[in-house]
Model the fold of this input.
Amino acid sequence: MRAEPRVIPVLLLQDGKFVKTTRFSDPVYVGDPLNVLSIFNDFEVDEIVILDIRAAHNRNPTPVRELQRYAEECFIPLAYGGGLTKIDQLSQIFNAGYEKMVVNTALSDNREFVQSATEMFESEWQFVAEEIQSTVHQSIGQ
Done:
């Protein structure tokens, strides 16, 4: 029996708008988040991942009120990543309507945070991203 492929678009958020980038540089405006998410409601996607690339850099997540507006517009399961470093941030974002969180830097910077989140949220805590770009470039000599 073959499993059907899952369609999970990853939308990059920067300064309150969705952008397209090349290796997270040179952002090009894609659209207003509420408009883009309402368009995705008409597509057959399984989940949407929103990554705030500025928040990831400065460790300051998108305001929960803004994330809640996105969740209210979208009828597809959502995951959020960007600047998450505290358990209370995770709780607030789960309560705003998101089903999964994405962490990256916290994996290496704050293992206690990841352990605490795993214990507190158990099954909801499913989605983790690791940055491997520098490792890949080192291994191929770039």
Q: What stands out?
A: Helices lie at 33-40, 53-58, 64-73, 87-95, 106-109, 111-121, 133-139.
